[in-house]
Design goal:
homodimer, Arc Repressor Mutant, subunit A, about 55% helix, globular, DNA-binding
DNA sequence: CAACTTGTTATATAATTGCTATAACAGTTA
DNA sequence: TAACTGTTATAGCAATTATATAACAAGTTG
């Protein structure tokens, strides 16, 4: 899977990597048990510092997406506490939804958007990359 | 409406204010045409600097929630370009939804969460504060 | 064994961001 | 005039982000 960073983005580089890897898992391009590149390999590949990649991997570990192993590097291992995941999600989308309500977006429109994004994940094709 | 800031939060103070005001509008506690407190009043009230409040108001103006006027201060004025609002929302919830998909959350569960939050906004009672 | 790779840890430095502090200015209101 | 608005400018401090070097222990490979 292709990983890139945008140096002109106002989003932190380690967060860009984190997000791309999460998208990779959600779209099935990265599967449970897969190994991610080593921190040094990925750092050289995207032309950033080793520690920045390491921070991305550390965040992914704390969030229950990978396990870090001295032998195999970062291995995708999904740890799921559904109740906690839903609680986190509520926090993350609450402000976005409040904004939408203020601007007159109805719940049907949000449902449609949610379905659109779900379909995007489910029907991901390598040709889209 | 009561506004507070949490100095121990890792969220920027001006963003805390911005979010609370957006929630206030979404729940109907603040209505179109209402004036927000002056930057100096609110700054003193929550014990932060004037410029931090000013930044919160500036963000709200850029996002189309208020208009800043030298006479009446910050006045709630909702400017809505639905297409743009939905585009922004997609960006804001995409990562959260990718996380949910990774952790095995189905779209029905997300719909339920969306409805819950919508109900929270619609049925807001002053007694909840 | 030796060479190499893994994550991990430790420093140090520079740039940016968030927040504060003070001060002043122009326009509005009473 | 006096008191209030938002706005602008400057300065300083702390935390975050990203970088650069360097070293270490543990596992893998030739």
């Amino acid at each position: 899977m292709v990983l890139r960073v945008d140096f002109n983005s106002d989003e932190a580089l380690y967060m860009q990597l984190r997000n791309q890897i999460i998208f990779g898992i959600a779209t099935g391009r990265i599967r449970e048990g897969d190994s991610l590149p080593s921190v040094r390999q990925l750092a050289e590949y995207v032309s950033i510092n080793m520690h920045t990649v390491n921070k991305a991997y550390s965040v992914l570990r704390e969030e229950g997406f990978v396990k870090l192993d001295r032998r195999r590097g970062a291995v995708v291992a999904l740890e799921s506490d559904k109740k906690r995941v839903l609680e986190e999600m509520r926090e993350e989308i609450a402000v976005a939804m409040a904004k939408a309500v203020c601007k007159g977006i109805g719940r049907e429109e949000v449902h449609r958007l949610v379905d659109e994004i779900y379909d995007l994940f489910a029907n991901w094709e390598e040709s889209m990359e």
